[in-house]
UniProtKB/TrEMBL annotation, chains A, B:
PANTHER family: ADP-RIBOSE PYROPHOSPHATASE (PTHR43736), SLR1690 PROTEIN (PTHR43736:SF4). Pfam families: NUDIX (PF00293), WHD_NrtR (PF21906). This is NUDIX domain-containing protein. Gene3D superfamilies: Nucleoside Triphosphate Pyrophosphohydrolase, Winged helix-like DNA-binding domain superfamily/Winged helix DNA-binding domain. It comes from the Bacteria. InterPro entries: NUDIX_hydrolase-like_dom_sf, NUDIX_hydrolase_dom, WH-like_DNA-bd_sf, WH_DNA-bd_sf, WHD_NrtR. CDD domains: NUDIX_NadM_like.
Length: 301, 301
DNA sequence: AGAATAGTGTCTTTGAGACAATATTTC
DNA sequence: GAAATATTGTCTCAAAGACACTATTCT
């Protein structure tokens, strides 16, 4: 049967139905995208012979409008009727960083009723990974200023409570965001409840010092995802320039994972993900290192 | 400084700003939740001595209204202004299956502009895993009927195209959904593009025979997530009854992964996730098996 | 006895952690 | 030569694939 001839209970065809459909009768939430834009940058060198330390950075903007006026928030904005979520995320990324050719991935959608005091807002968070070189940050529309913050992520407590067959797993994470002028601290509690056959994850902000909305929770979620994914995918290379040494790559893994790695094991692990070039670093104050590039033939699984 | 005294460029405090805020001036999309409700059920026994085969099932509803009238869709519905996304998902789950104490997880949010011919609709998909026993399915409001479909997921083609340093990874998946009365077939192409420093995943429906909206893409995404997560988490136990044999557990792994497993290796892998009881199956036509339950002390990582 | 599933033992391969050892450059 | 990083080698341990073997019940 021709689909166009199908009639519903009111006797309408699909075309007739769509012509008579009034979308305005339902109340609708606002939808925004919020961007977690990460990069890894070099800090100043301690000593001319040592390697420069790297650190994981996240871009935040200072709010110039209510609500949370003067606090720091993730860059983001409303999704318009004529763009997809991905397009809105790309637009926001471009607005804030002036780059658009980067790795981008949707993370999670935040839908609590009172997340935003203005009105009902549902926010879809995206993570972008940017090569630290050649970054030019400009402030967006409704932001006084955009700044990179060093990210420190520390698990303060992990606790499991058993009640018969039910159990609750709680993890308390402290996130410290800092740069030359500001230090923001957030403590987020992640609660996984298994009660009977029900399972649910909840997040709770214990402290959100200077961080707007529920953005501290989004940051906690994003860092966790980044840490998980760097272990089994190639996303780390999106934080790297075209050519890099294995020590630089290791440093990027170390700052995102927040722990030191043994170089022998690290080199074995990433051996298939890189191709060597015949170029070397020079003037380093010590033995030069071979430069590598990403091996596009690598694939996980 | 007291936050309440902060004034914006118009000289308003936060309270004054919120009182004057008019949310209606921006056009807003509709937001829905779509539920991927999976279960594993026994099929009829071939032979009285053999074990009953299990199969992975997904719940679909036949649409009784336009658009896609008469086609099969994921259960779902609009998110109201007074409920969170999780609450809306839980409400839809309860409406369709009459259960609510189950595992539930947000998957992905689908935001293409023309996903729905009625109006701009953004859909947040959730996965729920239900123990097959004690399921009572009832139809929802705008659905003629709800039915369980067997899920078959088959990768037809995997292809990588290299163009210098850029490359495209394409995967073509065929999903067949079937029960006694209907067989639906979908072919979804997943495209991962790495062009320059840009990375993006796209999905494309090649065939979506009898499946409404972009729900075939959602199903492809969900099965992939389920398959990944069953390998390194305990979610499989949400598909099991309280007591089960290791063979039954293995069957659940096999039908969700779509491949056979070696029982020696399987038993080693899940050894720490289960606790034995002193009960056994009986009247099975062969050697009885010890019954196990989930070990709540197990934790991954 | 035969059918069918339940459950164990062991050999091999693979990958990661630990740590020692060697190599190369600049100052 | 000293400082500093680069790079390789090897021992050990843990997990998973492969496959053979033993055990138990019902008809």
């Amino acid at each position: 049967m021709d689909i166009e001839q199908l009639r519903d209970k009111q006797g309408l065809t699909e075309t007739e139905f769509l012509e008579s459909y009034d979308a305005s009768i339902y109340e609708r939430p606002s939808v925004t995208v919020d961007m977690l834009i990460f990069t890894v940058m070099d800090e100043a060198k301690e000593n001319y012979r040592k390697l420069s330390e790297k650190s994981l950075k996240l871009l935040l903007v200072k709010r110039g409008v209510h609500p949370y006026l003067g606090q720091w928030a993730l860059p983001g904005g409303f999704v318009t009727q004529t763009e997809s979520l991905d397009e809105a995320a790309l637009r926001e990324l471009k607005t804030e960083t002036n780059v658009d050719e980067v790795y981008m991935e949707q993370l999670y959608t935040w839908g609590d009723v009172s997340r935003d005091p203005r009105t009902r807002v549902i926010s879809c968070s995206y993570m972008a990974l940017v090569d630290g070189s050649l970054l030019e940050v400009k402030a967006g529309d409704d932001a006084d200023e955009a700044r990179w913050f060093n990210v420190s992520y520390r698990v303060l407590e992990e606790k499991k409570t058993l009640l018969g067959k039910d159990f609750v797993f709680e993890k308390v994470v402290r996130i410290t965001l800092s740069n030359h002028t500001d230090t923001l601290e957030a403590v987020v509690k992640v609660i996984e409840k298994y009660v009977g056959k029900a399972f649910m994850v909840e997040r709770e902000m214990v402290v959100a010092n200077g961080i707007a909305f529920d953005h501290a929770e989004m940051i906690q979620y994003a860092v966790e995802r980044l840490r998980n994914k760097i272990e089994y995918t190639d996303i780390a290379f999106n934080l790297m320039p075209e050519l890099f040494t294995l020590s630089e790559l290791q440093q990027v893994y170390e700052v995102t994972l927040g722990k030191e790695l043994l170089s022998a094991a690290f080199r074995r692990k990433i051996a298939n993900m890189v191709t060597e070039t015949n170029q070397f670093t020079k003037d380093a104050g010590h033995r030069p290192a071979k430069l590598f590039r990403f091996n596009p033939n690598w694939r996980y699984m």
